C-alpha cells in the first residue's frame, strides 16, 4: 500500500526547472531508490517529500498528510538525513543526539539509537573528531531519533570506504526490518541493486523508469556475454533517452 505519493509535481528555482510532471508512489516498508545523473532533481524530490520545499504544482502526500501544509506533522514522521551533516565541531555525539531528540514529541531512547549505529563508545566524542564513517552513522541516528515511519537518506554512502558502505547497507536493512519505509537517494547502482525493492530513475527532472531493479534489467537488451548489471541497464536507459532527444523524439 502506498504511504507516499508524488503526483504531477513540478518545482522551479527561478529559471531552473528542477522537477517536472513527476509521479510515483512508495509502498509501506519498502526500500525505494531514487537515482539519476547530477542535477537530475533527486534532492528536490525528497525535499518535497520531507516538506522542506513546496512544489509549484502537483500534489505530494506523505502518510495522508500534505508536507507543504502540515509541515510539523510530516517532520515528526519523516526522518531526513541530509547530504552532509554540519554540526559544530565541539558538539559531542551524545549532546547532538539529545538536542535533536528534544525536537520530537516521543523521541527514541538516545542510548539505544547510538547502540543501533554502533556509536555507544563515541558518546563523549566531539563531532569534529569523528571519522567520515562515524559522521555518517551519527547522521543516521539523528534521522531516526524522532522514531519516524519514513527515513530519507540522501547520498548516505558517498565518500565512505568499502567497509563503511557495507556497514551502512546493513544498517539500512536493519532500519527496514524495524518497519520503517526507506527512501534512498544514491548514485551507486550496486547499492540500489543490493538494497532497493523498487527504484525511480529521474533525468532532467522527469521520471524515466519506475520499477524493480530486475524489471529494469529485463527491459533492457543485453547483447554481451558478461553478466548483466543494473549499471549497464541504467546507462543504456539514459543513452536511449539522449538519443531520442537528439532525434527530436
Ligand atoms: N535552492 C536552489 N536554488 C536554485 N537552483 C536549485 C536549488 N536547488 C536545486 N537547484 C537546481 O535544481 C536542479 C536539480 O537539483 P537537485 O539538487 O535536486 O539535483 P540532484 O539530482 O539531487 O543532483 P546531485 O546528484 O548533483 O546531488 C539543479 O539544476 C540544481 O542546480
Automatic annotation (TrEMBL):
Residues 4-229 form the ABC transporter domain. It holds the Pfam family ABC_tran. SUPFAM superfamilies: P-loop containing nucleoside triphosphate hydrolases. It comes from the Bacteria. GO terms for molecular function: ATP binding; ATP hydrolysis activity. GO terms for biological process: response to antibiotic. Keywords: Antibiotic resistance, ATP-binding, Nucleotide-binding, Transport. InterPro entries: AAA+_ATPase, ABC_transporter-like_ATP-bd, ABC_transporter-like_CS, ABC_transporter_ATP-binding, P-loop_NTPase. It is found in: Cell membrane. It is a peripheral membrane protein. GO terms for cellular component: plasma membrane. This is ABC-2 type transport system ATP-binding protein.
Amino acid at each position: 500500500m502506498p504511504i507516499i505519493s508524488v503526483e504531477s509535481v513540478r518545482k522551479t528555482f527561478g529559471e531552473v526547472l528542477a522537477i517536472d510532471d513527476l509521479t510515483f508512489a512508495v509502498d509501506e516498508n519498502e526500500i525505494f531508490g531514487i537515482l539519476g545523473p547530477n542535477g537530475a532533481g533527486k534532492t528536490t524530490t525528497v525535499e518535497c517529500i520531507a516538506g522542506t520545499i513546496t512544489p509549484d504544482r502537483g500534489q505530494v502526500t506523505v502518510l495522508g498528510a500534505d508536507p507543504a501544509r502540515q509541515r510539523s506533522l510530516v517532520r515528526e514522521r519523516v526522518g531526513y538525513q541530509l547530504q552532509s551533516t554540519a554540526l559544530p565541531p565541539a558538539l559531542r555525539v551524545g549532546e547532538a543526539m539529545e538536542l535533536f531528540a528534544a525536537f520530537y514529541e516521543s523521541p527514541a531512547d538516545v542510548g539505544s539509537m547510538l547502540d543501533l549505529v554502533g556509536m555507544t563508545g563515541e558518546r563523549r566524542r566531539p563531532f569534529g573528531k569523528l571519522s567520515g564513517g562515524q559522521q555518517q552513522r551519527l547522521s543516521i541516528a539523528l534521522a531516526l531519533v524522532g522514531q519516524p515511519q519514513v527515513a530519507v537518506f540522501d547520498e548516505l554512502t558517498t565518500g565512505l570506504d568499502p567497509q563503511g558502505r557495507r556497514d551502512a547497507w546493513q544498517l539500512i536493512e536493519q532500519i527496514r526490518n524495524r518497519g520503517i519505509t526507506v527512501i534512498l537517494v544514491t548514485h551507486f547502482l550496486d547499492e540500489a541493486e543490493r538494497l532497493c525493492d523498487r527504484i525511480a530513475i529521474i533525468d532532467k527532472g522527469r521520471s524515466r523508469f519506475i520499477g524493480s531493479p530486475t524489471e529494469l534489467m529485463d527491459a533492457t537488451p543485453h547483447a554481451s556475454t558478461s553478466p548483466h548489471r543494473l549499471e549497464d541497464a541504467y546507462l543504456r536507459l539514459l543513452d536511449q533517452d539522449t538519443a531520442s532527444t537528439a532525434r527530436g523524439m
